[in-house]
Amino acid sequence: MWVGATLIFLFIGLISITQIILNRKWELIYTAYGYEDYFKFISKLKSEGVKYKVELPVNARSDRFNDNTQYDIYVKKI
């Protein structure tokens, strides 16, 4: 039992450290809720030629007619 719990803890820790290392050059600038808000903000970034990346931290989408999906939008730090 302790071995399984230890392995899960180590796995979660490894994932967290990997995310910190990969995201250290990126800064969260906006969190959009729903695809309409997402596309409005992304179109502004694209028109300015800004490089960005998007993460979906939790897939909280429960109803496809009421889209409240969370989109975290990151840009590179200067």
Tally of DSSP β-strands: 3
Distance between the termini: 47 Å
Spatially, the strands of the biggest sheet line up as: 1-3-2
Strand content: 15-25%
Helix content, binned percent: 40-55%
The whole-angstrom Rg is 16 Å
| Mean pLDDT value | 87
Query: What is the helix tally?
Result: 2
Please identify the structural class as seen in this structure: alpha+beta
Q: What is the string of SSEs from the N terminus onward?
A: HEHEE
Specify the biggest β-sheet. 3 strands, antiparallel
Q: Give the CA-based shape.
A: flat
Low-confidence stretches: none
Please give a structural write-up:
This protein has 78 residues and is of the alpha+beta class. It is built from 2 helices and 3 strands. The protein has a domain at 25-78. It has helices spanning 2-23, 35-48, and strands at residues 26-33, 52-55, 70-76. A 3-stranded antiparallel sheet has the order 1-3-2, with helices on one face. The longest helix has 22 residues, at 2-23. It is flat and about 50 Å long. The N and C termini lie far apart (47 Å). The relative contact order is 0.21.
Keywords:
78 residues; alpha+beta; three-stranded antiparallel β-sheet
SSE layout:
Layout: H1 2-23, E1 26-33, H2 35-48, E2 52-55, E3 70-76
Antiparallel strand pairs: 1-3, 2-3
Question: What's a concise summary of this model?
Answer:
By secondary structure, this protein is an alpha+beta fold. It is built from two helices and three strands, in the order αβαββ. A three-stranded antiparallel β-sheet has the order 1-3-2, covered by helices on one side.
